[in-house]
UniProtKB/TrEMBL annotation:
InterPro entries: Puta_zinc/iron-chelating_dom, UCP006173. It comes from the Bacteria. Belongs to the UPF0260 family. This is UPF0260 protein FHY64_10020. It comes from Pelagovum pacificum.
Amino acid sequence: MSEAFPDPIDRDGLREGYWRDTPLEKMNAKQWEALCDGCGKCCLNKLEDEDTGEVALTRVACRLLDDSTCLCGNYEIRHQFVPDCIRLTPQTIHEHMYWLPRTCAYRLVYEGRDLFHWHPLVSGDPRTVHDAGVSVRGLTVPEFEVSEDEWEDHIIEEP
Ligand code: SF4
Ligand code: SF4
């Protein structure tokens, strides 16, 4: 990993490929947190069609998302500011599969698939998720700038 770009998530000392043979519910806290690729896609607001259940992604981001790093501005105490921020766990992940991004590492492992080459656990570099064009860096507008009835105008394809 580059010294100039320290990984915001602590992935040091983890066994290579642990996600291939460790079920989600057997992962320890560090292994679980390290699965996150830092794409920021789960921090975008979504629109759900009440009739079809279809979910559309918008580029309107949670107020705490930093568009330049794709990180939560205050992850540890985020629920004080965003009470409904999802807390993904091995026990609840199945409830969220209908909206989790296609490339989300939690989805991939839940489905028994491998991580992509650009995942920081594979590449060893947290920048590769951005270089591969699968993060939301530079794509978002903050939710405090767009009223909810205008979110429809900001629907995007998942990067
Ligand atoms: S979509 Fe998944 S991998 Fe990407 S930031 Fe969210 S939890 Fe992490
Ligand atoms: S509170 Fe943080 S982790 Fe939760 S959706 Fe907002 S930016 Fe993402």
